[in-house]
Amino acid sequence: MRIQKLTKETKQNLLEDLLKRSPNSYGEYEASVQAILDKVKEEKDRAVFAFTKQFDQADIDATNILVSEEEIEEAYGKVDASLLEVVRRALQNIKDYHAKQKINSWFDSRPDGTILGQKVTPLQRVGVYVPGGKAAYPSSVLMNVMPAKVAGVDEIIMTTPPGKDGKVNPTTLVAAKEAGVDKVYKAGGAQAIAALAYGTESIPKVDKIVGPGNIYVALAKKAVYGHVSIDSIAGPSEILVLADETANPRFVAADLLSQAEHDELASAILVTTSEKLAQEVSLEVDNFLKELSRAEIIEKSLDNYGYILVAETMEDAIDAANEIASEHLEIQTAAPFEVMTKIRNAGAIFIGEYASEPLGDYFAGPNHILPTNGTAKFFSPLSVDDFIKKSSIISYSKEALFKVHNDIETFAKAERLTAHANSVHVRFENEEA
Amino acid sequence: MRIQKLTKETKQNLLEDLLKRSPNSYGEYEASVQAILDKVKEEKDRAVFAFTKQFDQADIDATNILVSEEEIEEAYGKVDASLLEVVRRALQNIKDYHAKQKINSWFDSRPDGTILGQKVTPLQRVGVYVPGGKAAYPSSVLMNVMPAKVAGVDEIIMTTPPGKDGKVNPTTLVAAKEAGVDKVYKAGGAQAIAALAYGTESIPKVDKIVGPGNIYVALAKKAVYGHVSIDSIAGPSEILVLADETANPRFVAADLLSQAEHDELASAILVTTSEKLAQEVSLEVDNFLKELSRAEIIEKSLDNYGYILVAETMEDAIDAANEIASEHLEIQTAAPFEVMTKIRNAGAIFIGEYASEPLGDYFAGPNHILPTNGTAKFFSPLSVDDFIKKSSIISYSKEALFKVHNDIETFAKAERLTAHANSVHVRFENEEA
Fold it and tell me: So what family is this one in (chains A, B) (predicted)?
């Protein structure tokens, strides 16, 4: 891996490099996505079935679009029993962690009869999109579904494209069932997003759509945003390791590689105060590369977006980490909790040498759907909060309103909104006539 | 106002009518907005000054773009003292309410050395956009700024277009100062949004942009979304009153009118179980209309989007309210808290006959920036949560990771991510070699 001194310049170059991974204009796809959305909005099921035939070469109709109980049973037969046990243990951890995120409605009453509050209500129906293809990512199913489940969403439905045989990936089905998905529909691509956003005879309209997908899915989600809610569009994966001379170079190298293997746009960065560690990690990366199955992808992503930066001080290193605002941040230093207190921007923070990033991807409990590409400066991990919404509560007694009615009228008149002033005034017109 | 029976059909028509108010394609403006954004991104201050000259006919440069202390003092001289007192009292209520929304970081430790948590960090710098023009809306300044202030945002800056004389509306300035805005810059339109998103020599880049604006501002915010965060795009104002035969028709009528006066797209809806109340409210609306200064706007908005619906039962009325998901919902019934418990979807809920909607607009404390056009099904009022973000915290001891390392490796291998498996495996390679 390239080793550079951390300077204002190298940091700036790195930041500009990373931003290049932002999706550019996808104008060429936008029109075809919009055409699919319009067609499904108008023709509903009929369009969904036709697009499924066209894009997935599968014969799906109203009789088989909903995955049946038999199909789910069949899927259980195909999934390795030991994997199922692992999925169940991971699920429990994810559930326990997200349960701690739940917030309650609250009400505050005052002696004059004023009641102010905030009512928390789960979303009614949520749609989870799961990509098709050969590789299944059951961990992604769990991470998308569990926050909705814990939030108390009434109905969680899933759509995923069928194979040519009209079947859905068994691991995906089992993960969905284990996580408590209510219904799974065989539909993929922009047509599935349209069905979730507008509703069809078979697929009900949802309030929010979450889950990853290809460029068609991403553009379709963006297009229906506002009509329904969506999660944020995920960018390429990232890891930044903050380490000092006490870090184990083999651990650091293995962790950098764990993110670099995702795809060629993934980014793996080490910022360290130790020149010696920098050299050792680079060597270990080369050693591991010989053994890893996805070495080709890893080499490309390291060439493009892999960096080892040597900082003068830990303060400088921390500043760089805060500016880069990485999706995953590992702290492998002598006093990692000290460093953590100074981190402002990161999706997930892994503290100490035994908190390796894949622990968070699969098992510990916190969500693995995290803000990428610097957006950890203002976005948060997917959480229970994404599946609830709040309503303000306001109740005033006559006495309480009387005390402030002149204030409100003054304010409304200053904004020239006389009907606003009148609505308060009329309540006391007899008192003051 | 038109009076209709609440049926499946009338409800459907109403819902379709309301949705017509959604912004359609603004393709014609998109290109010019993008051109402004690109120019400011490249030429920074120079472009901002040129656009300010072009659109606002004001001479602004690096020496006067930042509102000075003298200008703020001057503004205080121009604002009515009694209005200032009202602003201060409203501000305190808004501060008190939002303080209750603050959430803390939390950490959960287990005996095996596992620590999981969620770290809450305020955004670093936020930009508030305030429209120019003759009418100032100081209440909007308070409602946009206070949640950021309470959240603990380090720096809150504001941009607002100058008049031809290079001055900013004094009421806006005073409201900004009172709310604790750190700096006010004289810039408006898409060029101000671009400056906030990319930064210029004079205006620093922010993490999030909030505040209302015209179509150029809205499109510019949408275009920079992802690079920075934004609030949601506000639609036309709405009120829905749920009332039974115990409601005071004069109060109900006045409250409907308070929202109808906003603009011609505003919607005012009464859903009642009482045919008698329906008739009386309609009469009172006509009576008030004779006296109100904005009668022309009101008549248009009532013609377009004003409805009185008579429901068979309160359950039907509540169902309709939940489907419409109004920005403001008033409950004027014999047992309003009973009804409130059944409300799922509303931006703000006003309970009882003395909780008139303008109380919430100006004074009670909850935010008046609320989800519109049915989006209360999945969006929330602007709150402290919009100005913080969360990072997950994961720390495992060696012992804790050892217990689960096989599980994680199994899961990673099932997803064919071997470098993920390796990152856990390497931590115990010597133990198990």
Answer: Belongs to the histidinol dehydrogenase family.
Q: Which of A187, A61, A64 is nearest to A129 (CA)?
A: A187
B124 annotated ligand binder? no
CA angle A371, A138, A350 (to 5 degrees): 40
Interface confidence: ipTM more than 0.90: yes
Q: Residue B166 pLDDT more than 60?
A: yes
Retrieve residue A275's tokens: 């020149």
Q: Do A123 and B378 touch (CB under 8 A)?
A: yes
Q: Which chain A residues are Cβ-neighbours of B83 within 8 angstroms?
A: 410-411, 414
Q: What is the mean pLDDT of residues A49-61?
A: 97
Q: Which of B280, B359, B405 to mutate to test the interface with A (most CBs of A within 10 A)?
A: B359
Cβ–Cβ under 8 Å, residues A270 and A307: yes
3-state secondary structure of B410: helix
**Where in the sequence is the domain holding B423, given as residue range(s)?**
396-432
CB pairs under 8 A between A and B: 359
Domain assignment present for residue B137? The answer is: yes
Strands (E), A130-243: 155-160, 183-186, 208-210, 229-230, 238-243
Instruction: Confirm if B429 and A284 have CB atoms less than 8 A apart.
Output: no
> Which among B209, B230, B251 is the end of a domain?
B230
Decide if A349 and B391 are in contact by the 8 Å CB cutoff: yes
Shortest CA gap A354–chain B (Å): 6
Residues B266, B349 within the same domain? yes
Instruction: Say how many C-beta atoms besides its own lie within 10 A of residue B36's C-beta.
Output: 25
* A385 assigned to some structural domain: no
B167: domain CATH number is 3.40.50.1980
- Of B178, B238, B280, B327, which is the active-site residue? B327
Write out pLDDT tens, residues B2-26: 999 999 999 999 998 888 887 655 6
Query: Do residues A42 and A10 both lie within one domain?
Result: no
Chain A residues lying within 8 Å of B358, measured CB to CB: 408, 412, 417, 420-421, 423-424
Query: Residue A332 annotated as binding?
Result: no
Q: Do B150 and B240 have their domain in common?
A: no
Q: Are strands B115-122 and B388-395 parallel, antiparallel or unpaired?
A: antiparallel
**Can you spell out the DSSP letters for B124-173?**
SEEEEE---SS---HHHHHHHHHHHHHHT-SEEEEEE---TTS---HHHH
